[in-house]
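Worked example

This section walks through a single chain of length 86. The input is the sequence exactly as stored; nothing has been trimmed or padded.
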Amino acid sequence: MMQKNGNIVSLKNFQSASRQAALDDISAQAFMFLREQAQENKLPMRDVLLEHLLGIALVIKAVEGQDESARVLQEIAKQINGDPTT
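Given that input, the structure is written out below as tokens.
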């Protein structure tokens, strides 16, 4: 009987963790940039974030369609509400 190689699972987990770390880093950098720009322009951070979120949703709509944009916003709402299915 052949043994499964545990390295495959470990590599997949490592790649997933590395990908998440990169996503977290990019998101943090984007947030810091938006915060700095909001401060420099004397704008409320809330307004800047809402405008940014709307812009992202509109780009997704233009590129991937209205259904995908709505799905992404629904996923965000689930995360905010603490839905355990996500």
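What to look for: The CA atoms of residues 35 and 41 lie 10 Å apart.
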